[in-house]
């Protein structure tokens, strides 16, 4: 059993959740950006459009 006061524990959990959500959002944005660049390069090189398969 943790000896921390409950309000301290709740605040720490809230901070962790917001940090984790920011990390997940950043990762999703990076992934979307990478896919966008891949599609752009493939389109410029004349490859068929595969954007529907990445979604």
Distinctive features:
single chain; 55 residues; mainly alpha
Concise overview:
With 55 residues, the protein is mainly alpha-helical. Helices cover 78% and strands 0% of the residues.
Structural account:
The protein has 55 residues and is mainly α. Helix content is 78%, strand content 0%. It has helices spanning 6-44, 51-54. The longest helix is centred in the middle third of the chain and has 39 residues, at 6-44. The model has no long low-confidence stretch (mean pLDDT 68).
* Main sheet attributes: strand count, strand direction, barrel closure: none
What is the mean predicted local confidence, pLDDT?
68
- The helix tally amounts to 2
Residue share in helices? over 70%
Q: Return the structural class.
A: mainly alpha
Spans of at least 5 consecutive residues with low confidence: none
Distance between the termini: 44 Å
